[in-house]
Amino acid sequence: MTQLVTANEMQQIDQYTIDVIGMPQDVLIERAAMAVVDVIGAGHFDLNHVLVLAGLGNNGADGVAIARLLYAQGINVSLQFVGNVNRAKDSVKRQLSIIEAYGVVRSEKSDFNEATLIIDAIFGVGLNNDLPEGLQKMIKAANHIEKPVIAVDMPTGIDATTGEVRGAALKAHTTVTFGFKKVGLTKRVGGYLSGDTIVKDVGMLVPEDFEFSLPLSQSATHESEAI
Ligand SMILES: NC(=O)C1=CN([C@@H]2O[C@H](COP(=O)(O)OP(=O)(O)OC[C@H]3O[C@@H](n4cnc5c(N)ncnc54)[C@H](OP(=O)(O)O)[C@@H]3O)[C@@H](O)[C@H]2O)[C@@H](O)CC1
Ligand SMILES: [K+]
Prior knowledge:
The chain is of the alpha/beta class. It has one domain: Rossmann fold (3-Layer(aba) Sandwich). It has 6 helices and 10 strands, in the order βααβαβαββαβββαββ. The protein has helices spanning 7-20, 25-42, 58-72, 90-102, 133-145, 188-193; strands at residues 2-5, 50-54, 77-81, 105-106, 117-121, 149-152, 174-178, 181-182, 196-200, 216-217. The protein starts with a strand and ends in a 10-residue tail after the last strand. (6S)-NADPHX binds at residues 58-62, 124-130, 153. Residues 10-210 form the YjeF N-terminal domain. InterPro entries: YjeF_N_dom, YjeF_N_dom_sf.
């Protein structure tokens, strides 16, 4: 039995945990990154060349932290930004200044062909529009070569509430989603493109009087089991 949430409900819980409980955002980002690295470690993925695709919001911040953790384990990882870094959120810029001290290579072009595993940290629950044309093209090309993809929180391009594709969506082998299972991962194309979905606890707290709008789902899911 799992509690399903909409994008908005997840964002309210995020904000409450940070603003009311006082949990630093960078702690949540670090725990999210560690959760994804746990899943990578427990999986049977080819880690010869991991390519992290990072966007400009907190989903991207998760991605930069994941790249740092993998690099610190001696894994061959490259980081590619999707979008204009100058427009990135502060959380991403903080992660960037940290990772630069570790010496991680930032690749400009998307070296999909060499990658043996792709970490999709472009957009998460903050997706609020159709993807830009260029990104849609890149995603369709990536889907075509069928590289294994681990989606961070949501497959990029899937609306976390409706499960619809916003122009294009990166098909994931596995989706590691934080806190609660987003209802978009169970509906329409979102249910298909998200692959195996694992819910990981990153320390979010739900307000006492919080009213979930969705019923508990029967769907089996991996709770945040220790791996
Ligand atoms: N909050 C927390 O504490 C934690 C959050 N966590 C992580 O954060 C993720 C949510 O982060 P997020 O709200 O920054 O949104 P995200 O999905 O990164 O999008 C980035 C920005 O892109 C923009 N944008 C949207 N759609 C667009 C489009 N079609 N085309 C172009 N641009 C578009 C939009 O910016 P705007 O347009 O609103 O200025 C948006 O802000 C969540 O999924 C999880 O991974 C975890 O670390 C746990 C702790
Ligand atoms: K993502």
